[in-house]
TrEMBL record:
InterPro entries noted in UniProt: PAP2/HPO, PAP2/HPO_sf
Membrane keyword on record: yes
The name this protein goes by in its record: PAP2 family protein
Transmembrane portions of the chain: 66-86, 93-113, 133-153, 165-184, 190-209
SMART domains linked to this entry: acidPPc
Keywords, sorted A to Z: Membrane, Transmembrane, Transmembrane helix
Record domain Phosphatidic acid phosphatase type 2/haloperoxidase: where: 93-205
Pfam families: PAP2 (PF01569)
Species whose genome carries this gene: Bosea caraganae
Length: 229
């Protein structure tokens, strides 16, 4: 019987949250707090300068880089190869498929909605695509939460899954904040990316991940003592 547990309610709410934001933004509307929050990270009277010392600006660029195609791509490759070499080849393929598909969807959504980047501050990082949703926020949520979920399915240990999820969420939040700090995204771009990322990764782990885990030969799992319960 279908049960309304937090594991179900959270991704469903996230999906509806993304849809609501997407429809609102696509209709040409905007939120007043978007402007206020972007300016909150800028020196009063000087929107070209982010708040904080120079090292903080550089650190934010570094954090933002973790959510780039290169950063997330390397994480995906490392996690996929680890699962593959440990004998969980179906899970490795499933993880790669989830991230690749999400990357294509992110590009399509940006083209379809075509929201302009923030124009009230000077960008502190280069941009090449439209603003909504934030690809860094969406793809970091998909990649990191999917990695945590697929590793959890492989290990069958709640403590390992819990640690991976906490680390994933810390990185996801920091990457999203860095995009607003650098002035390259409106806060609602990041929020929408998080919402879609949570919904996507939850679906990927719950259905694709579990299906792939069930397809793993029992003898393959027995060869991976480091990931065995």
């Amino acid at each position: 019987m279908f049960s309304l547990t937090p594991r179900v309610l959270v991704p469903v709410a996230a999906a509806f949250g993304f849809l609501g934001l997407a429809v609102y933004i696509a209709s040409g509307q905007s939120f007043a707090f978007d402007r206020s929050l972007v300016l909150l990270f800028r020196v009063a009277g000087d929107p070209s300068t982010p708040v904080g010392p120079a090292w903080l600006r550089e650190a934010m660029r570094d954090v933002s880089g973790l959510g780039s195609f290169v950063g997330l791509g390397m994480m995906t490759i490392c996690a996929t190869l680890t699962l593959w070499l440990c004998g969980f080849r179906h899970l490795a393929v499933g993880l790669a498929l989830s991230v690749i598909a999400a990357t294509l969807v992110s590009t399509g959504l940006k083209i379809a909605i075509g929201r302009e980047r923030p124009d009230i501050v000077e960008h502190s990082a280069l941009t090449f695509t439209a603003s909504f949703p934030s690809g860094h926020a969406f793809l970091s949520a998909v990649t990191l939460l999917s990695i945590a979920g697929f590793i959890g399915l492989a290990s069958r240990r709640r403590d390992i899954t819990r640690v991976c999820l906490w680390l994933a969420w810390f990185m996801i939040v920091m990457i999203g904040i860095s995009r607003v700090y650098l002035g390259v995204h409106w806060p609602t771009d990041v929020l929408a990316g998080w919402c879609l990322g949570v919904a996507w990764s939850s679906l990927a782990v719950a259905y694709l991940g579990r299906k792939m885990a069930a397809a793993e030969p029992a003898q393959e799992a027995s060869r991976s003592p480091s990931l065995r319960a």
